[in-house]
Specification:
Layout (H helix, E strand, L loop, with lengths): L2 H19 L19 E3 L2 E3 L4 E4 L2 E4 L3 E4 L2 E4 L3 E5 L8 E6 L13 E4 L1
Antiparallel strand pairs: 1-2, 3-4, 5-6, 7-8, 8-9
Main location: secreted
Pfam family, one: IGFL
InterPro entries: IGFL (IPR032744)
Length: 115
């Protein structure tokens, strides 16, 4: 392949990608198909848009989903409910930011919740 043809092939590929990822008229996928340039994550056997949903207990749930943790409510996409292990192991829980270990030292972001 000559250098000129190689350059033309690269330019053609860039043009195709630009067309596929352009923000022209919206096209909604039907069924399980996804757009090539759409950001997506996988949850079990489902895909989801992380700007709208998250994966919680192998299910796709909306970002605003809440659940009870003792007498508190926590946001399942951003927080986690942990058993409180110090002094009263069966009487209370602590809500921690997701990604922090349930066994890490308490922080100012934690919320203690009674049963």
């Amino acid at each position: 392949m000559t250098p000129r043809r190689c350059i033309l092939a690269v330019l053609a590929a860039v043009c195709v990608l630009l067309l596929l990822c352009s923000h022209g008229a919206p096209v909604s996928p039907t069924g399980p198909q996804l757009l090539l340039c759409q950001s997506h994550e996988r949850c079990g056997d489902q895909f989801y848009d992380p700007r709208q949903d998250c994966c919680y207990d192998d299910a796709v749930v909306p970002l605003g989903r809440t659940q009870k943790c003792g007498n508190c409510t926590f946001r399942v996409c951003f927080e986690q409910c942990c058993p409180w292990l110090v002094n009263r192991p069966r009487e209370s829980f602590v809500v921690k930011v997701k990604g922090h270990s349930c066994y890490s030292a308490p922080s100012s972001d934690d919320r203690v919740c009674s049963r």
